[in-house]
Amino acid sequence: MTGAGRRLVRRLPAWMRRQPIEVMVCLVGIPTGLLSLAGLATSRALDQVLPWWVTKLWALCLIAGCAAWLGGLTSAREVDGRMVLWRLPLLLLGLRLLSTAAAVYGVAIVVTAGWAGVLASWPLWVVALGTTVRRLDLADRVRR
After folding, report:
1. CA angle 93, 128, 121 (to 5 degrees)
2. Measured in Å, how far apart are the chain's first and last C-alpha atoms?
3. Phi, psi angle pair for 85, to nearest 5°
4. Which end of the chain is least crowded, N or C, by CB within 10 Å?
5. d(CA 7, CA 11)
């Protein structure tokens, strides 16, 4: 990485530097949901499998999930060398909504394309399962 790149990364908030993949997923999901909700972006799989109003509900779930997850991520503060989440319930809600939205889209692709859709839907299953594991792990840590 160049010196300018390193300086740019150092200027980012700690919550963003520590969780860059999570932040990027949120920053991809919000505009995707907005474009879908507005009808500017469509999905053949979702349109064929779901009624129009469920497709709109899916877009709202994607937007709300990513926004809540991002809201939870922005609450992370470094305390005694550890990252502490101050808005954990918001983050957990976002993870639940996003995992649901990803799973619905993954199912729609497989239903539409059959076995050929398994590979195409794989990234969605990774997101659905990854966010579920993250949510369950965080919730378990709070209980302990």
Report:
1. 145
2. 40
3. -95, 120
4. C
5. 6
State how far Cα 100 lies from the chain centre.
10
pTM: 0.89
What does the pLDDT look like over 4-55, one tens digit per residue? 888 888 899 988 998 999 999 999 999 999 999 999 999 999 999 999 999 9
In angstroms, rounded to a whole number, what is the distance separating the alpha carbons of residues 101 and 29?
Answer: 10
Residue positions counted in the chain: 144
Are the C-beta atoms of 125 and 102 separated by less than 8 Å?
yes
- pLDDT tens digit sequence for 53-103: 999 999 999 999 999 999 999 998 888 888 788 999 999 999 999 999 999
Structure tokens at 130: 């990854």
Helix H, strand E, coil C: the string for the chain is CCHHHHHHHHHCCHHHHHCHHHHHHHHHHHHHHHHHHCCCCCCHHHHHHCCHHHHHHHHHHHHHHHHHHHHHHHCEEEECCEEEECCHHHHHHHHHHHHHHHHHHHHHHHHHHCCHHHHHHHHHHHHHHHHHHHHHHHHHHHHC
